[in-house]
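To the wet lab folks,

You asked to see what we're planning to order before we commit. Fair enough. Below is the target structure as tokens, and below that is the sequence we designed to fit it. If anything looks off to you, flag it before the synthesis order goes out.
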């Protein structure tokens, strides 16, 4: 699909907690059909220190309202600046970039796993899978109950299971400790979050013969295969996370 460079208008900038917020943008042109897992390169205006665009996943799309949502965590100067954007201001993005999660075989039992801000691409993926007749289950991991976000929206997609590291909500511990991982058998798992978590999930899937896709959040500069700063080592050689990914089947990755 052709990449577009477009100005979007901020419809809403909603704080979810100390460091997470949702930007809802509306386009001047009709938003094209996007795929779950794709991302945008977002321009940070008026900041010479952050002249490189920042990669942000498509969190949700509403074609009727012509809106895209980003779920963003403040990590440094660029995302901090995004958190200050006000309704009516403009945001320039290059999109859609990257590949996407694949559609599993009909009747596949699917689990979506997200940790922290890594849940970002899973909302769009979950809604997309539901629209295709699947009933994905969702396992989300957070540090504590105050960090839980968008529970009700995920619950509208399918059954939601929670873990918190301190046990303040859901099961205590890490995602891979959750009962659903021990008691259910899934055919297909899609995962996004901290690399250690994705590696643990990949190990679990390998042991249990489950097809597993992860979305990698490597540092990126260009976002379209020119600078080679996002290279990942795979069984097919070195690949660029920005164009060959960010979604990879874990069988491909040399982790
Ligand atoms: C394909 C892709 C999709 C992404 N989707 C989202 C998303 O939906 N929401 C979101 O909040 N973030 C997302 N990220 C991460 C986001 O791009 C970075 O957090 C952001 O670029 C940091 O910019 P900054 O100027 O605020 O911080 P910087 O000052 O550039 O960095 C602050 C700290 O964050 C680290 N960092 C910077 N970039 C990344 C990165 N790509 N991954 C991990 N750590 C990084 C730096 O090493 C540094 O320690 C995504 C990254 C990729 C590659
Ligand atoms: S970010 Fe430049 S090649 Fe991937």
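Sequence we intend to order:
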């Amino acid at each position: 699909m052709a990449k577009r460079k477009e100005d979007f208008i901020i419809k809403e900038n909603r704080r979810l907690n100390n460091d997470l917020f949702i930007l809802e943008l509306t386009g001047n042109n009709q938003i094209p059909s996007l795929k779950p897992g794709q991302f945008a390169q977002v321009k940070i205006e008026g900041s010479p220190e952050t002249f490189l665009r920042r990669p942000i996943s498509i969190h949700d799309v509403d074609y009727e309202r012509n809106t895209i949502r980003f779920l963003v965590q403040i990590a440094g100067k660029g995302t901090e600046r995004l958190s200050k954007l006000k309704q009516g201001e403009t945001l320039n993005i290059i999109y859609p970039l990257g590949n996407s999660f694949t559609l599993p075989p009909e009747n596949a039992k699917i689990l979506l796993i997200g940790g922290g801000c890594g849940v970002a691409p899973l909302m769009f993926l979950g809604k997309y899978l539901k629209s295709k007749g699947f009933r994905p289950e969702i396992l989300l991991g957070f540090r504590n109950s105050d960090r839980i976000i968008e529970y009700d929206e995920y619950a509208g997609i399918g059954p939601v299971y929670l873990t918190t590291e301190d046990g303040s909500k859901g099961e205590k511990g890490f995602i891979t400790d959750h009962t659903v991982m021990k008691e259910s058998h899934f055919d297909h798992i899609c995962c996004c979050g901290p690399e250690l978590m994705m590696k643990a999930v990949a190990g679990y899937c390998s042991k249990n013969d489950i097809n597993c896709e992860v979305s990698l959040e490597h540092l990126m500069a260009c976002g379209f295969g020119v600078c080679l700063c996002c290279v990942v080592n795979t069984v097919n050689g070195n690949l660029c996370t920005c164009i060959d990914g960010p979604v990879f089947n874990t069988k491909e990755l040399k982790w």
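Structural context that might help your review: The CA atoms of residues 37 and 194 lie 16 Å apart. The first strand starts at residue 4 and ends at 15.

Thanks,
Computational group
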